[in-house]
């Protein structure tokens, strides 16, 4: 059954989504689990298109308790979070598999890092074109237009798709 860009496959009661089912959003994010009166209700998992997942117990559409697992297997912990805490800046894959030899630094949690098209930035959820101010997912599908604040942040902090000398440069 289609729901304005989304789809649902599963059980129904009184012409409403109820019982077990899979609800897929237009973004390809999908929920698999229990439904009641058209809402997430009971045990269910949201699978994000980047490979992350959120397993939770839902009550009339609201998550009451849950666990977030990132695509690389790292589980988020609200307390005793030890990842990227300011004292230890290693990527999660470096924590699991060790550091690279000197001179072969790991630039992202993906190893090897994602190839960025010339003239674009990798902003974490896709590629950013600073000329058009459009963010596309990694398959080049439109995600959003960047406002001034996001544009400034991406240009200041994100990886570029071209070589650029940075840091100290002596005067010639």
Number of domains: 3
Shape: globular
Please provide the count of β strands.
12
Distance between the termini: 68 Å
Roughly how many Å is the radius of gyration? Answer: 21 Å
Pairing-aware structural class of the strands and helices? Answer: mainly beta
- Can you give the helix content as a percent range? under 10%
Mean pLDDT: 85
Structure commentary:
This protein is mostly beta strands and 172 residues long. It folds into three domains: 2-69, no CATH class; 78-109, no CATH class; 114-156, no CATH class. It has helices at 92-97, 148-157; strands spanning 2-3, 6-13, 16-24, 30-36, 39-47, 53-59, 62-69, 121-122, 127-129, 134-136, 142-145, 159-160. The strands form two sheets. A seven-stranded antiparallel sheet has the order 1-2-3-4-5-6-7, with no helix packed on it. The protein starts with a strand and ends in a 12-residue tail after the last strand. The mean pLDDT is 85.
Write a compact overview of the structure shown.
The protein has helices at 92-97, 148-157; strands at 2-3, 6-13, 16-24, 30-36, 39-47, 53-59, 62-69, 121-122, 127-129, 134-136, 142-145, 159-160. The chain is mainly beta. The model has no long low-confidence stretch (mean pLDDT 85).
What would the keywords be for this entry?
mainly beta; 3 domains; single chain; globular; five-stranded antiparallel beta sheet; 172 residues
């Amino acid at each position: 059954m289609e729901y304005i860009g989304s789809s649902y496959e599963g059980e129904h009661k009184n012409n409403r989504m109820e019982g077990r089912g899979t609800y897929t959003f237009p973004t390809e994010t999908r929920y698999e689990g229990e439904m009641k009166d058209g809402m997430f209700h009971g045990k269910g998992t949201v699978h994000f298109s980047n490979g992350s997942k959120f397993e939770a117990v839902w009550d009339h559409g609201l998550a009451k308790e849950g666990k977030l697992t990132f695509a690389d297997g790292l589980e988020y912990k609200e307390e005793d979070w030890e990842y990227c805490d300011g004292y230890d800046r290693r990527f999660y894959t470096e924590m699991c598999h060790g550091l690279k030899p000197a001179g072969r630094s790991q630039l992202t949690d993906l190893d090897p890092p994602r190839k960025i098209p010339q003239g674009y930035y990798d902003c974490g959820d896709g590629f950013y074109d600073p000329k058009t101010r459009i963010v596309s997912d990694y398959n080049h599908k439109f995600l959003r237009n960047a406002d001034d604040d996001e544009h400034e942040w991406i240009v200041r902090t994100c990886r570029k798709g071209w070589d650029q000398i940075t840091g100290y440069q002596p005067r010639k």
